Amino acid sequence: MPTGAGMHVIGVDIGTSLTKAVVFDSAGVSIAQACTPSDVHHLPGGLVEQDLEQVLGTVATVVREVAGQVDGGVAALALTGQGDGLWLRDAEGNQVRPAISWLDGRANALLAKWQAGGVTREVFRRTASGMFPGCAAAIMSYLDSHEPESLDRAAVAGYCVDAVVQRLTGEITVDVSDASLPFLNPATRSYDEQAIAACGLAHRRGLLAEPARPRTVFRLDTAGAELLGLPAGLPVTAGPFDLPACAIGAGVREPGDGILTAGTTLACQVLTGEPTFDPDGEPAGMFLCSPNEGEFLRAMPAMVGTASIDWACTLLGIDVEDVGRLLGESAPGAGGVRALPFLSTSGERAPFVDAAARAQFSGLSLETSRADVLRALCESVAYAARHCFEAAGLTGRLYANGGGVRSAEWTRIFADVLGRPIVVPGDPGVGARGAVLVAAEALGQPFDVDRWVENSRTVEMRPENVEFYQQGYADYQTSLSAARGLWSL
């Protein structure tokens, strides 16, 4: 790959609600950025869907915008994006029905049935992955019973990134990180046929693309080139998906190091050298295969991210820009208000799986302010992060990214609750950065990773708050244990 002063790599992060493109030069400097929203359709009954054509259009919009902002050529296109859900396509890459998001809850009752019948535990023992309603297995099984014609028309059942790749390159593929949940044996990086059979999907096995070798390079075909306004034959890399891409882009490299992504998903990941787990433990989380053989990310992606704060802001009439100020108006402990943050209609998926999980607030009084309610919710999300990192085995340095860490006070709450400093990369496009770093290695021009991630700041914990939040976390665990006995669909 040419890496002269005039050659650039475009990293594209296709998020759930926002598609971002960042152009990097060979020194790791982002020289152009663009973003545009994707439509997320929330339908009755907990259904959440997206339109592939609209999402593909967002990719074209941001790529064309950033490509027009730089002088010189584009050396490659590096893609990452949201994982899970189900993106059904035909052999030409056209959707056979709207994509079903990882946020979708149509398979809630099915997942509860699988939990009661031992299916989730059987799959967990074979793949180290805890299934949840928005994972491909549950959605495929639901469609097999309620909408089999969609599966009949499909040639491939995949994910967001590989759906875009198919339309840009004509290749049917899937990155090993996306394939990690729910059917992949992470140790062998191949599908576990008995896990597929346990979900009743052996007859749909042909819809699963075989995982590509790490750092596989594709090429823009004529249609993809016309869509993006880039040359046909341009190198394209596809993955890893956004969670591991963020870890790579932030600088997670040593076993035990972790990253907190405070986005739509509260994703907590820890790097490890082997997929070891207790097969009789809580069937939740997953081991994500990284681009490096023998390297994995133990991921606990909770459903309690920034969407919870958006909900609170809407309900309380708060501008998102005012969150930081309001958090400062309520002291640790939120005036006695406590919360459980499980607002997703599909419940929770890490560090436990329960489609019936729901939020609650306690300790409210006539003296409770909007700031108290908001702070209680932010503290509860931080407690959920601690719960996830305890399950994932965090022992080393902690990095953080996502929209949530744009709030300095919420980031300090995370540091206080987790009892450790947090390194926040200075460039918010860490997912795109991680995808570009993988692309550079794939094309034989690896960059100086230390230099690429050196622009960061450290948020220190406040010792006077750490002890206070120790008790707060204990109270959170007590409330959670009591609530889990009461939830039902």
Automatic annotation (TrEMBL):
Gene3D superfamilies: 3.30.420.40. GO terms for molecular function: kinase activity. Residues 328-442 form the Carbohydrate kinase FGGY C-terminal domain. Keywords: Carbohydrate metabolism, Kinase, Transferase, Xylose metabolism. One of its GO terms (biological process) is D-xylose metabolic process. Residues 9-249 form the Carbohydrate kinase FGGY N-terminal domain. Belongs to the FGGY kinase family. This is Erythritol kinase. It comes from Amycolatopsis cihanbeyliensis.
